[in-house]
Amino acid sequence: MKTRHKRLFLVLGVVAGVSVATALVLNAFRDNLTFFITPSEVMAKSEFPERRFRIGGLVEDGSVDRDPNSTRVTFEVTDTRKNVPVTYEGILPDLFREGQGVVVEGRINSEGVFEADNVMARHDEDYMPAEAQEAIERAGHPEDEVGDYY
Amino acid sequence: MLGELGNFALILAFCLAIIQSILPLVGTATGDARLMNAGRSLAVGQFVFLLFSYVLLTWAFITNDFSIRYVAANSAEALPLVYKITGVWGGHEGSMLFWVLTLSAWTLAVAIFSRSLPREMLARVLAVLGMVGVGFMAFTIFTSNPFERLFPIPTDGTDLNPLLQDPGMIIHPPLLFIGYTGLAVAFAFAIAALIGGRLDAAWARWSRPWTTAAWGFLTLGIGLGSWWAYYELGWGGWWFWDPVENASLLPWLTATALIHSLAVTEKRGGFKVWTVMLAIVSFALTVLGGFIVRSGVITSVHAFATDPDRGVFLLGLLAIILLGSLALYAWRAPKVGLGGAFGWYSRESLLLANNVLLVVACAAVLIGTLYPLAVDALNLGKISVGPPYFDAVFMPLMLPLLFLIGVGPVVSWKQSDPMETVRQLRWILLVSALIGGLWPLTMGAWNPLTAFGLGLVAWILLTAAVDLYRRFQRRRQQGVGKALQAALRPSFFGMHLAHAGLALVVMAIAMVNTYEVERDVRLEPGETATAGGYEFRMIDSDTVRGPNFDARQATVEVIRDGEVIDVLHPQLRFYDSQPQMPMHQASLNRGMTRDVYVSLGDDLGGGAWTMRLYYKPYMFWMWTGCLLMAFGGFLAAGDRRYRMASATDRRQVSERDIDSHDNSIIGESPARSEGQT
């Protein structure tokens, strides 16, 4: 093989490799992007996507109900306007509290209950999940008011 | 008073770094040997002042000097002494001081151990390291000064974040920082070579041990971080594709590519321009990692408190580094000739494939990490890219890479014959396939992907063993001693050790991903639950007092085949400083073939608790593999070969024109160039 051909061969190989990788990336992206929706937006919709999505907000005061005989927990996530009922099976994160920011990931079932497979709370004293804050802001509260919910 | 002294020492070190980045370069331009040599003294001075500054901050922690804001925010009277000492790097400001200290330690090491380097090269390397030091010290002094005073002085500090009060946290960040700053050395060598216009085999030989050592530290740091997350975060995961974890993985991937590409540059004079690019990119990625972690753009377990100024400063620093080095690159690189030609099937082409795979994997992780940030910054809404994305992209890229690990070392440089490789490796391939097919049967359900992964593990281990044996046999007639010496030559043996370490990590991943058992259960005293063939019986729960926390603690017996093998005490800790924020402390029983693991959940009243039970097969090998990889790296970095400038090197060094004789390296005797990547 001539040097020129060899180089062509190499370049083609690299281009082929990179294209395969790009295809992988795009494909994986399409399937795994998780969108974020606020409780008000959830309640305003009548149909829900098949894919998983995230809801952010505050855990409504007095809404947390633990099943004493299993690890099932139900609670409501609110952006101070609308509430979404959530159910979760498992152990909640350390800082899951009523009145505190939370982000849940999962799907809505046929009864309109959000079945979470992942619950994220803040992980230190002065931090609120960005998505929880965003939900409350989108519900029309100015940023400084958000602080009241800490 | 001592705080001011520490601050003063830091500022002095900053001034010395400024001088260090200018004088040696002036020296190389004017040919003034005294100015060129000044770099070494300045490096020593810089290190001494930074060490002094660091010791003073540590002293402030030990003596509870809460008039210093950073101490007040990261320590407390009741904090155990060991965490006072390690708390120095537990927060943003102190960790930056630690960062510049390690950078300066690397600079000092280069100044001390590079006596065989030509004077001008060393002067340039030290000057570039001085510039990097100036950037990071300016960042520390102007945006994150650890010696800032606090008034009024609080009576007690607010304590170190409880998550960081853990042995794993004592060593994880320092090792990672040492790895990051070590890549600055690789960067400095590349830039110095670009400035001097000498990109050749000698440059690659000098740069290799530093790069490999930095890579070893990075590997250890990432491994320990994973180990810490595994037991301390209490969720049983060892890698979460969290942006901050990705921030450390990105430079690791490019540094791994860099090590391999440097091998080609040293042995064959090839890939020069590409190698330089990798060195620049690796270093830039460490700065990008600093930005991701410290700017507050993401929220994660690792993120430091938010401060937009810091983000802007780091982004500016990143821009200067990239623009500066890429401009130099664009100006100098085209003048660098191509290296020795190589055939389509040769060790060079396989290492090229290695590089492409690693860099593409790095790009895919980078996209997944930055895309949500970019979308958010452009106000297009909030999205997140979850672990399935990374798994889906990363694995298909890593599988061919793992296969190539077995092939690369036995293929010769320049030109080789695929049929020859097939002849050499066909039996190993067959045995590996058998092992891969049968191994999963010892664990339970057979799964094709697991079998494939385990087959690759066997493939890497067997090819390494056979390669070592063949090398031994080849020198056999010269005596066993000589033959052993050849097979155990640090750079060669270290490579196989690192590859074997990776194989062990892959084995642990394949096993744990397929066969782990995780159960959330509700247990009351006397009740039993099973997970992965182990029974867990809850005995009782009570309250205990630690040095600076109260804890609810459950007692759980682990039972196998009717026998109690261990008693675990998972805790829910309430630290005095943050009583509103309980922390899970999981309790583990570790073993060679499996870990069992209990994490305490919520108190359901009446003595009942929710608990998470885990059965995690082969986790031991994940950490062992990381240690082995790093050890292999250190072994290779310590090979005397890199410290002895060969006659060829000296001849090259004495000439200053732009790389006109890179092919001279090909004149090496076949015995020397064989098998050493």
What would a concise description of this structure say?
Chain A has 150 residues and is of the alpha+beta class. Helices cover 33% and strands 29% of the residues of chain A.
Description:
The complex is a heterodimer of chains A (150) and B (677). With 150 residues, chain A is of the alpha+beta class. Chain A folds into two domains: 1-33; 35-149, OB fold (Dihydrolipoamide Acetyltransferase, E2P) (Beta Barrel), CATH 2.40.50.140. Chain A is built from four helices and seven strands, in the order H-E-H-E-E-E-E-E-E-H-H. Chain A has a five-stranded mixed beta barrel. The longest helix of chain A is centred in the first third of the chain and has 30 residues, at 3-32. The termini of chain A are far apart. Chain B has 677 residues and is of the alpha+beta class. Chain B has 20 helices and eleven strands. In chain B, strand 7 and strand 8 form a beta hairpin. At the A-B interface, helix 1, strand 1 and helix 3 of A face helix 12, strand 1, helix 13, strand 2 and strand 10 of B. Strand 1 (33-37) of chain A pairs antiparallel with strand 1 (383-385) of chain B.
Task: Give a quick set of tags describing it.
heterodimer, A: 150 residues, alpha+beta, OB fold (Dihydrolipoamide Acetyltransferase, E2P), 2 domains, 33% helix, B: 677 residues, four-stranded antiparallel β-sheet, disordered C terminus
